[in-house]
Amino acid sequence: MTLDLPQRGSETPSVLRLTVGWDTTSLAGLEFAAWLGRFSASPRSWTKSLAPKKYKKWLAAEKESVTSKALAALADHLPRNQWASEPCTLVDATSEPAALTSAAQSAGADIIVLSSSATLKQARFLASPTADALMHSSPVSLGLVPTGLKLSKKGVTRVNLALLHSGREDTTGLRCAVRLALLLEVPLRLVSVLPEMPDVDSLGSEPAESYEAALSLLDRARDEAFKLVAEETADETTAEPEPPLEVETTLAYGNGWEKAVSSVKWKKGDLICLGSHPSAAQQRVLAGSRASEFLRYAPAPVVIFPRVEG
UspA domain: which residues (predicted)? Predict the structure, then answer.
């Protein structure tokens, strides 16, 4: 699923619709959804072995309890005019990933939001079984929320696209990052992450091939980003002389993923985008091994987009 670009000045502007996988033990996913501004919420599924009559009674009581907690949490974090028409749904299912996917597709959601199951001592993000399954199969973009974040009160102030492969990247991630930056009217930063290079100064007069490849990737991605901006804004009529999107590039490097990710500055208003692995099936999310390593040290919320050809 790719994000629709809003038409400036349109009477019916596009919105982001989010489905939050919520289990009442953490508000991180809900806070991230509220931070983006618009979403529809769906708590996680429950199963319990009971006789049919007792099960129906238990399910009704559980629905009332969860709905009450969810609505209270929504009221604390999101204006009522940004709630979905059905803001809370209790899903009766045996497969949580399938239930979340179905709920998201039924709601027309752009992103499924899931929080980390990690503590800061383990990592910033540790995928739960549900998150892990969706990271390898979801037809809907995934919003993953690391532990211990302090989000900007101003909302998203910059969209970042993390480039993790020196070879050809899936262009869906770049296209969606461009659309998201245009939608939110914030700058776009392209970050090539190189965890195999301890120190640029130690490379001597002939930079390593990986360093040259990373710089080349950034140049290609920047050129492609400007082409995409031109395509996405081709139908807009504006007298503004400024370019519709500011694009910057940077190289993050270090000995290992943690040092590489922390080698560049991150802001409280940063949102990180990732494309799926190039081998992903059509219209499916696939987070490869490099993406999984990057996520462990992600300093900001991450959105992974399904691969879409063309």
Answer: 172-306
